[in-house]
Each structure stands twice: as structure tokens, then as C-alpha cells.
């Protein structure tokens, strides 16, 4: 390997490391959207519906201390994996309402991953009712967009949605 090739490989490795560090340590996406959350009146109730795949989540936001209840269980009980808990709470955390509102969710259909995303979608929609100024930032971060990807149906003559039976020439 010549000196020029070594230098190029080294520069590529440095650039890759810099990009990786930028992507992983960029706190802009996790930073709260609003500098301080809007005050809620004590009798305020905000409802919204979130969907993902075949999961539907009906969300109710009320002023409180940050308690999140999913199907009458705590968030940690219903979504035991920390990754799913993070997804479900993502809209609250990024909007800065994490400890200011109680969230009650009724979710049904689909699997737990789809349900967690449906909860996030519903919470984001409810937060836009609380504070309409959050809408542009939550939309930019993709939390208000309904993810339309669903399982493709199986077609007649095929084994699965697109998989064909094995072809034999002879």
C-alpha cells in the first residue's frame, strides 16, 4: 500500500468516525421542542387517537405529575422493553411535557411494537391540542405522520404476498 492510499484510507476512516459521532451525539432531535410547557387548567382534558399498522390507541391527557397508564397498567408493566417505553414516551419528552401531564391510553390490535408507535402518535396529536405551537416541530420530527405501512395481503397462486412457488423447468 502506497503512502497516498494509506492517507486516503485514514482520511476516510476519520470522516466516517466524525459522521458517526455527529449522528449519535446530536442532541437536537432529543432536545425539548418548547422552552417551557404551557400551563393547563385543572379541569382540562385532551383526547386524540393514534394509529400504527393495525393498532389503535385512544389517548387522554390531563394535568398531573407525569403518570402514564396503558390499558390500566403502568407504562413499564405494559411495555417491558425499555426501547418500547422510549418510543411511547418520545413525544412527551421532546415536547417537554413529561412531568406535567398524566396520560391514560386504551390501545388494542396489532403487536406491542405497533402499539407503542400508536401510543406515540396519539400522544403527539393530543399535545398539538394542548399547545398548537408544537405542531410544526412535532411534524418535522415525524410524530404526527401516520405511518401507512401495513402487511401486504397474500395473492392467489403465490405462497406469500410476493413469494412465488418454486419453478421447475423440467
Describe this protein's structure:
The chain is an alpha+beta fold. It has a domain at 46-140: Ribosomal Protein S5, domain 2 (2-Layer Sandwich). Helix content is 39%, strand content 17%. It contains five helices and five strands; from the N terminus they run αββββααβαα. The protein has a five-stranded mixed beta sheet with strand order 1-2-5-3-4. α3 (82-95) packs parallel to α4 (112-130). The longest helix is centred in the N-terminal third of the chain and has 23 residues, at 3-25. The protein starts with a helix and ends in a 30-residue tail after the last helix. The model has no long low-confidence stretch (mean pLDDT 89).
Kindly summarize this structure in a few lines.
Helices cover 39% and strands 17% of the residues. The protein has 170 residues and is of the alpha+beta class.
Q: Which spans of ≥5 residues are poorly predicted at pLDDT below 50?
A: none
CATH topology title of the domain at 46-140:
Ribosomal Protein S5, domain 2
Provide a count of the helices.
Answer: 5
Radius of gyration, whole Å = 22 Å
Mean pLDDT: 89
Encode the helix/strand succession as letters.
HEEEEHHEHH
Question: N- to C-terminal separation?
Answer: 51 Å
**Total beta-strand segments:** 5
For the record, the CATH architecture of the domain at 46-140 stands as 2-Layer Sandwich
Major sheet characteristics: 5 strands, mixed
Q: Indicate the percent of residues in helices.
A: 25-40%
Query: Structural class given helices, strands, pairing?
Result: alpha+beta
Shape: flat
Strand content: 15-25%
The CATH class label of the domain at 46-140 is Alpha Beta
Strand order of the largest sheet: 1-2-5-3-4
Amino acid at each position: 500500500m502506497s503512502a497516498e492510499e494509506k492517507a486516503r484510507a485514514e482520511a476516510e476512516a476519520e470522516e466516517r468516525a466524525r459522521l458517526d459521532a455527529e449522528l449519535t451525539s446530536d442532541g437536537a432531535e432529543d432536545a425539548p421542542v418548547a422552552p417551557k410547557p404551557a400551563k393547563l387548567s385543572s379541569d382540562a382534558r385532551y383526547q386524540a387517537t393514534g394509529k400504527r399498522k393495525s393498532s389503535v390507541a385512544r389517548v387522554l391527557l390531563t394535568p398531573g405529575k407525569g403518570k402514564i397508564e396503558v390499558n390500566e397498567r403502568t407504562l413499564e408493566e405494559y411495555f417491558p422493553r425499555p426501547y418500547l417505553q422510549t418510543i411511547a414516551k418520545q413525544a412527551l419528552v421532546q415536547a417537554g411535557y413529561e412531568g406535567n401531564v398524566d396520560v391514560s391510553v386504551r390501545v388494542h390490535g396489532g403487536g406491542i411494537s405497533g402499539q407503542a408507535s400508536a401510543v406515540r402518535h396519539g400522544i403527539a396529536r393530543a399535545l398539538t391540542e394542548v399547545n398548537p405551537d408544537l405542531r410544526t416541530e412535532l411534524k418535522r420530527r415525524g410524530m404526527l405522520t401516520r405511518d401507512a405501512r401495513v402487511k401486504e395481503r397474500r395473492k392467489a397462486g403465490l405462497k406469500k404476498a410476493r413469494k412465488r412457488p418454486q419453478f421447475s423447468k423440467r
